[in-house]
């Protein structure tokens, strides 16, 4: 199944949009990357909820830029795509709080404070 889900977050200036890459083979794993960004208020808070590892870097602008790398072991690309689609990303903003939630399978609930 899933070996891990890696989330890298960097606060930098970039255009808002989430973009998925195609599924590629890397050794015994199939990998897909999602990148995007969201405006964040100056002095705002960031909350991350995930089952994978997280890397966080500060930057000079009021943006949260994220990269999610979805990885799975599968027999073929079709099976890998099906498994990778089970990793869901939800980004929300309420006031000064920007929340990123990543869940494997099922529904994404609200991240807890």
Brief summary of the model shown:
The protein has one helix at residues 77-84; strands spanning 5-10, 19-20, 24-26, 29-39, 45-49, 53-57, 63-72, 87-94, 97-104. With 113 residues, it is mostly beta strands.
Commentary on this structure:
There is one protein chain. It is built from one helix and nine strands; from the N terminus they run βββββββαββ. Strands 1, 2, 3, 4, 6 and 7 form a six-stranded mixed beta sheet that branches. By secondary structure, the protein is mainly β. The longest helix has 8 residues. Helices cover 7% and strands 51% of the residues. It has one domain. Strand 8 and strand 9 form a beta hairpin.
Strands, helices and their partners?
Blueprint lengths: L4 E6 L8 E2 L3 E3 L2 E11 L5 E5 L3 E5 L5 E10 L4 H8 L2 E8 L2 E8 L9
Parallel strand pairs: 1-6, 5-9
Antiparallel strand pairs: 1-7, 2-4, 3-4, 4-7, 8-9
Q: What are the defining features of this structure?
A:
elongated, six-stranded mixed sheet, 113 residues, 9 strands, single chain, disordered N terminus, mainly beta
């Amino acid at each position: 199944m899933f070996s891990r889900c890696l989330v890298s977050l960097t606060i930098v200036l970039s255009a808002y949009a989430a973009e998925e890459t195609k599924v590629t083979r890397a050794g015994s794993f199939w990998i897909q990357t999602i990148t995007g960004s969201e405006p964040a208020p100056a002095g705002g808070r960031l909350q991350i909820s995930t089952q994978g590892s997280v890397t966080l870097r500060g930057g000079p602008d009021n943006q949260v830029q994220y990269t999610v790398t979805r990885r799975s072991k599968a027999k073929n690309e079709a099976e890998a795509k099906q498994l990778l689609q089970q990793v869901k990303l939800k980004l929300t903003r309420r006031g000064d709080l920007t929340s990123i939630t990543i869940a494997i399978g099922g529904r994404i609930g609200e991240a807890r404070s």
